[in-house]
């Protein structure tokens, strides 16, 4: 089937963590055709074709930021009627944005009022999209004086949010400019019904709930293409964090936040399935009005970097006296939020109880390939080294040997630790001492490496570790030391926890698990929400009898031999088998049937309980 | 699995309950108060509870932390904070001029001198061919054309940095009126000669007087940049100070006429000194005083037309520019065409009005008649259009600013590990 991947993160041009996920997904599903619709940020897209796998049929790119072409093309300016309709729709949009959020029905999600899907907002959005299809003057109209006046009027109404009442012209202009950028996807030429457009897709997969999801919304609205939304970080939350640093007045921030929230709510409302990369994102999505019945948590999956080949620890007494059995290992990028100071204090306590213990601090670069050598982290590393030298004097085996420090700072990729796996091989227990943490990927890696872990209870640690490691409160070196000692002294427990952790990680956090989840979701969506299309004949006219009558009949009436007592849930599986979504389109003919059959059945059985 | 020492998932209260033998934490009956104190800036600045929730999470507050404050989740904790902390008074909008630019303005140093040099360079370069033309007054027309062409190339190169950066930079990609402007400038240099040749009164040539006046016009780039900057900064200051769009419109309406007047004064002084120089170097027969005033007036009209057009283009109104400049070009081109056509047999009568006007006031009457009404039209349009707030979105261009990206978009600095949550760290 043809899947439209709507990206905002720079894939296929940039290679961030999110881009890598898109790449893994596309490469993992060679049986489908992908059309990539990329909104690039900032600089225009690089010249030339990015390296994409063969199943990507087309890459279409549009800049999300940057200057807009304001002047209308030579066709002349929009007519009076167009402008009047624009004023109408834009007025409706901004009055919805200015209105306070509706209270969600009780019990549908986390407490309190949050953005909820707003029919007025949605209608205005689609109205603007229709206007943009008729005439390319939407960006210019959004930045015009008329738009600013409409915005001002909406802010001054008594029903508006208190924060926006005091909006000044500078705020209004900043908001109009930002709205123009956010609504730029409406004006793109992606919405055509032709072979290249969104209308020819079987499924839209948006990788954010913001601007990238807007084309998906329109495809859903105008062509009936089902929409799948995946978020690995809450877009709304990132919006708040970004905007809180921007030099904007409070009214402008309030308006933009309200717009972003309402967009997300509308996207969640229209999406057939919303998937979250972890529970934290899921909570934000639910807060924005996503329906829990249509939500799923799908962990994005991480490459194991050869960690699954690391041998499981031995559970015998020899392990307790071996070097690796007495070594704690910490892997990560040294920065203040990792609280290595607490780790060193805890280790001092461990040494008091168990004099042979060692600590290996394996320094990796920052995650996501960000610029290395941040001054703050450099200073912190130096501080930690000084503290380690102060707390632990160098020690040697005998009076004649050269000593070394029980705390070793080694860079991964250096002489001592050439690969990440070697860091885990060298240690028996992996420690995580952060005070602030998002989704701890380091913890996932130590689970892949079958190491028992001691972590602080921050961020998503409990979600990741499940029951397969010890968790202590943050900023509590004493508890950390006790937990480490408990594991260092008990090799059997260490081995059991390590094996359980590896099993859990292989079940939940592998790339294959992620890809197969999406394979199932795609098939399920296309079978439940097929796109209704007129079959076109060779001359472009409607093709009579292009689709068999049975294809739209629920149940297996066509198959006379089918038993009468078909279970209710089974009936939904039939459209896949009877009609692979679109009979008349040649490019799918060869690809669909073979790989789809058994998998579809399997996936649907899995999906029945959920739906 | 044994439960020693801390079973996973049972640690929510661990941080709050004091350790048995450790130091007892100082506690208060209102634990939220301390949190409020710590995140006061965040709470005062927040526009809704979700913003506080996002900020708290970036500082490591999780649902289990929120449970310590007797809340169900971070969202409800954020709501309490939002309700309890009064919003900060509306902070004054950021100063219109960036701090760096202001410091630079207050303390003109080497950069200021360099800037002045950049804007004066085209004028200086333009004087060379003008002086050469003055000296080569009796020389072969081909030599004079060559001198004029060389000067043009130099001036065009020197004008590039003036128009690509700073206050005369056109920000957004739009249909350009550059061909029309080139026509106007070319006519100022060559038009009089062509017209005279078309009418059969003289040979086509670059006259020294038009070259001198054009050089003065090129000098006017410096005051034009200064006036444009003054206008943008004043308008932006008005934008920051006004509370309504109408208030801004009424306050900023006199700005365009004021800027144009300032520029016209500067241009007048330049033209006057150029004319004085020319008369000193090349004294004419004293019988044509009235005709001498027409040529500088035509150049002044052209200068004002170009200035207003640039102002409109800088503030995102390229269509108005096309209308005004296009009208002037049409008038000039039709005069020239009529003059050329009149050489055909039987068509002499067509050029009679042009011929009469040129006989009375000299050939400069044509550009004056073309540019003055167009300049007036554009002035009226600019007074109306540039008094609107929508013409002043974004910061006024700083002197050295050359990129076409809007300055308002500040790239977020992502310093907290919570911010690049899992897959959120995108490479921009």
UniProtKB/TrEMBL annotation, chain A:
Could you tell me which InterPro entries the record lists for this protein?
DUF3492
Sorted alphabetically, which SUPFAM superfamilies does this protein's record hold?
UDP-Glycosyltransferase/glycogen phosphorylase (SSF53756)
Pfam families named among the record's database cross-references? DUF3492, Glyco_trans_1_4
Q: Where is the DUF3492 domain?
A: 1-292
Q: Where is this region: Disordered?
A: 579-611
Q: Which PANTHER family does the UniProt record give?
A: BLL3647 PROTEIN (PTHR12526:SF636), GLYCOSYLTRANSFERASE (PTHR12526)
Task: Provide the protein name.
Answer: D-inositol 3-phosphate glycosyltransferase
From TrEMBL, chain B:
Annotated coiled-coil segments of the chain:
none
UniProt keywords (A-Z) are: Membrane, Transmembrane, Transmembrane helix
Ranges of compositional bias, category Basic and acidic residues: 411-428
From the UniProt entry, list the residue stretches annotated as the region Disordered: 1-29, 395-428
TM region positions: 112-136, 142-159, 180-199, 211-233, 254-273, 293-313, 320-344, 364-387
What this protein is called in its record is: Integral membrane protein
Gene source species: Streptomyces meridianus
């Amino acid at each position: 089937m043809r899947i439209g991947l709507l990206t905002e993160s720079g894939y296929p041009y940039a290679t961030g963590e999110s881009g890598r996920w898109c790449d893994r997904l596309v490469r993992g599903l060679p049986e489908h055709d992908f059309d990539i619709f990329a909104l690039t940020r900032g600089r225009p897209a690089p010249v030339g074709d990015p390296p994409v796998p063969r199943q990507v049929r087309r890459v279409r790119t549009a800049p999300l930021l940057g200057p807009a072409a304001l002047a209308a093309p030579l066709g002349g300016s929009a007519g009076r009627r167009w402008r009047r309709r624009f004023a109408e729709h834009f007025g409706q949009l901004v009055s919805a944005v200015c209105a306070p959020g509706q209270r969600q029905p009780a019990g549908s999600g986390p407490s309190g009022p949050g953005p909820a899907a707003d029919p007025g907002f949605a209608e205005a959005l689609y109205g603007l999209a229709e206007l943009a299809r008729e005439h390319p003057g939407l960006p210019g109209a959004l930045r015009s004086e008329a738009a600013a006046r409409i915005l001002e009027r909406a802010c001054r109404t008594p029903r508006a949010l208190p924060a926006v009442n005091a909006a000044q012209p500078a705020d209004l202009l900043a908001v109009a400019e930002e709205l123009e950028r956010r609504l730029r996807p409406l004006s793109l030429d992606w919405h055509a019904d032709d072979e290249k457009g969104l209308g020819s897709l079987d499924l839209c997969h948006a990788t954010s709930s913001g601007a990238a999801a807007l084309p998906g919304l329109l495809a859903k609205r105008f062509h009936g293409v089902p929409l799948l939304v995946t978020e690995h970080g809450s877009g709304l939350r990132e919006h708040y964090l970004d905007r809180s640093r921007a030099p904007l007045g409070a009214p402008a921030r309030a308006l933009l936040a309200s717009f972003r929230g309402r967009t997300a709510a509308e996207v969640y409302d229209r999406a057939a399935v919303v998937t979250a990369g972890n529970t934290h994102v899921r909570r934000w999505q639910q807060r924005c009005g996503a329906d829990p019945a249509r939500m799923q948590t799908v962990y994005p999956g991480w490459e194991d970097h050869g960690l699954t080949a690391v041998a499981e620890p031995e559970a015998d007494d020899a392990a307790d006296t071996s070097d690796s059995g007495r070594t704690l290992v910490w892997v990560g990028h040294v920065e203040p939020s990792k609280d290595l100071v607490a780790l060193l204090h805890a280790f001092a306590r461990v040494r008091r109880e168990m004099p042979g213990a060692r600590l290996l601090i394996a320094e990796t670069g920052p995650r996501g390939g960000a610029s290395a050598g941040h001054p703050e982290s450099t200073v912190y590393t130096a501080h930690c080294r000084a503290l380690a030298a102060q707390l632990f004097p160098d020690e040697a085996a005998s009076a004649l040997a050269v000593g070394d420090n029980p705390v070793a700072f080694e860079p991964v990729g250096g002489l001592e630790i050439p690969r990440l796996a070697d860091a885990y091989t060298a240690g028996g227990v992996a420690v995580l001492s952060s005070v602030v943490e998002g989704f701890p990927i380091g913890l996932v890696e130590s689970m892949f490496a079958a190491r028992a872990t001691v972590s602080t209870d921050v961020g998503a640690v409990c979600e990741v570790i499940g029951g397969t490691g010890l968790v202590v409160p943050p900023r509590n070196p004493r508890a950390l030391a006790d937990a480490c000692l408990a594991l260092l002294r008990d090799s059997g427990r260490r081995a059991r926890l390590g094996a359980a952790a590896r099993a859990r990680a292989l079940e939940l956090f592998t790339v294959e698990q992620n890809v197969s989840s999406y394979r199932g979701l795609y098939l399920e969506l296309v079978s439940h929400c097929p796109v209704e299309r007129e079959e076109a004949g060779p001359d472009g006219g409607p093709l009579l009898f292009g689709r068999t009558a049975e294809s739209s009949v629920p149940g297996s009436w066509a198959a006379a031999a089918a038993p009468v007592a078909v279970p209710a849930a089974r009936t939904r599986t039939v459209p896949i088998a009877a009609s692979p979504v679109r009979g008349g389109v040649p490019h799918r003919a060869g690809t669909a049937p073979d790989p789809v059959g058994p998998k579809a059945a399997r996936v649907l059985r899995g999906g029945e309980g959920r739906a | 699995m044994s439960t020693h020492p801390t079973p996973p998932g049972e640690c929510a209260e661990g941080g709050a309950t004091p350790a048995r033998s450790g130091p007892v934490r100082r506690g208060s009956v209102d634990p939220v108060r301390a949190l409020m104190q710590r995140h006061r800036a965040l709470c005062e600045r927040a526009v809704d509870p979700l913003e506080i929730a996002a900020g708290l999470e970036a500082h490591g507050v999780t649902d289990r932390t929120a449970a310590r404050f007797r809340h169900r989740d971070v969202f409800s904790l954020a709501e309490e904070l939002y309700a309890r902390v009064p919003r900060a008074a509306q902070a004054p909008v950021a100063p219109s001029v960036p701090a760096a630019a202001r410091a630079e303005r207050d303390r003109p140093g080497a950069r200021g001198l360099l800037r002045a040099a950049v804007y004066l360079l085209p004028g200086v370069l333009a004087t060379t061919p003008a002086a050469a033309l003055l000296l080569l007054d009796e020389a072969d027309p081909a030599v004079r054309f060559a001198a004029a062409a060389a000067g043009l190339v130099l001036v065009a190169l020197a004008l590039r940095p003036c128009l690509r950066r700073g206050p005369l930079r056109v920000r957004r990609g739009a249909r350009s009126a550059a061909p029309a402007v080139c026509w106007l400038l070319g006519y100022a240099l060559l038009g009089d000669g062509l017209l005279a040749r078309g009418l059969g009164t003289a040979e086509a040539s670059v006259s020294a007087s038009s070259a001198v006046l054009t050089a003065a016009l090129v000098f006017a780039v410096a005051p034009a940049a200064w006036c444009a900057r003054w206008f943008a900064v004043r308008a932006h200051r008005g934008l920051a100070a006004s509370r309504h769009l109408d208030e801004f419109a009424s306050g900023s309406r006199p700005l365009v006429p004021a800027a144009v007047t300032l520029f016209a004064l500067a241009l007048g002084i330049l033209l006057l000194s150029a004319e004085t120089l020319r008369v000193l170097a090349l004294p004419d027969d004293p019988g044509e005083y009235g005709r001498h005033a027409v040529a500088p007036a035509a150049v002044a009209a052209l200068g004002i037309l170009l200035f207003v057009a640039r102002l409109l283009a800088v503030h995102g109104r390229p269509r108005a520019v096309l209308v005004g400049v296009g009208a002037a070009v049409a008038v000039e081109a039709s005069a020239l065409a009529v003059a050329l056509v009149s050489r055909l047999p039987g068509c002499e009568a067509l050029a009679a009005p042009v011929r009469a006007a040129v006989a009375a006031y000299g050939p400069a009457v044509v550009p004056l008649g073309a540019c003055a009404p167009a300049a007036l039209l554009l002035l009226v349009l600019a007074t109306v259009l540039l008094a609107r707030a929508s013409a002043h979105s974004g910061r006024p261009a700083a002197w050295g600013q050359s990129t076409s990206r809007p300055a308002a978009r500040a790239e977020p600095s992502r310093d907290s590990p919570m911010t690049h949550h899992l897959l959120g760290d995108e490479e921009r």
